[in-house]
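Protocol step 4 of 5: obtain the predicted structure for the target chain.
Materials: sequence only (see below). No template structures provided, no constraints applied. The aim of this step is simply to have a reference model before the mutagenesis design in step 5. Sequence pasted as it appears in the construct record:
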Amino acid sequence: MTITMNGKEYNIKFGNKAVARAGFISKLARIGVMQSSTDDGVGAIEGMEQMYLLMPQILLAGLQANHSDEFGYNLTTGKGRDEQLNKVEDMLDHFVDEEDGDFLKLQEDISNEVLHNGFLKRLFEVEIAKVQNQAQK
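Step 4 output (structure tokens):
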């Protein structure tokens, strides 16, 4: 998946180690269930808010495989993660505010990548099932 931000193309690839360390799959699953569980629109708004908070973490994980020179940090210890996360947050702010970037389209593209990528798809399906089971209890 390729995205363009701040006039630069980024090849987003979700590697296993970066995704595991980021811990966003269960959060995405909760957001998906939240957005689909209410008909009054409140769940969708809350889900969008949660996605806005989570997007920098997802992008940072996706940037590790091909852009570690610019956004890399130690995946084992987490050293440097906060600094890189700040860079991604700044990049997103610029994308939305200065470039009139479409956050909803970016969210849709990222979600599609997560739902259709091999190991991420399976992880996401497992987490959705867990969240749905907890919600039913």
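Step 4 remarks: Residues 42-63 form the longest helix (22 residues). Residues 2 and 11 are 4 Å apart (CA to CA).
Proceed to step 5.
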